[in-house]
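Lysophospholipid acyltransferase family protein
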Amino acid sequence: MFYSAMKLSVGGALKLTFRPWVEGLEHVPAEGPAILASNHLSFSDSFFLPAVLDRKVTFIAKQEYFTTPGVKGRLTAAFFKGVGQLPVDRSGSRGAGEAAIKAGIDVIKRGELFGIYPEGTRSPDGRLYRGKPGGLARVALATGAPVIPVAMIDTEKIQPPGKVMPKLMRPGIRIGKPLDFSRYHGMDGDRFILRSVTDEVMYEIMKLSGQEYVDVYATAAKRQLAEAETARKQAEKKQAEKEKDKHKSGA
């Protein structure tokens, strides 16, 4: 009931304001379990995709979103629960990975739709990065559920990093045909099979999105960008200090 009310209010507002276009809705089954594997360009991806679907789709989210104290924390938790986000505890020896896999399997066993981002994090530059072979493939092979590739289009342009007010524009969503990996059922312990399944899904997402593919993990790319930015700031700081010393010596 709460989900329906939240979907009606939030989803309705998103569709009315941004008017997202969508292709391939017929590929999402009217009932029964399925995994929606999407590229990840923006925080808003987890809201735009459910907004255009008639069925509930459950994504995972950091547990911190659900446990922050205070009025703001309670409102945030209510919002995330209302739009189908599932809290995942990132503690433990293997962190969010095992928790996400268990959460995904539970969603599939209930006959529902499970949404996941194989890249593991948002793209730092709009390109499509290598999919992580854990969550997506393991849930698919453990449950036998079909994997439906999804491409979010232009969602990163609505609210770029550092911008408070979103830009009014039409994002897009392309939904591909379901992929059947039943031939690998029960082989979720084989890392080569996991890699093969993940790469096949990422290839379909690439065709749907038209993104340039980068064969490295997005987390590694973000780390490299952060290191480069730190090096740039340090170089600028050193240059400023040299200019300051030069000015003093010439005074």
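thats it. The chain has a mean pLDDT of 85. The CA atoms of residues 121 and 219 lie 7 Å apart. bye
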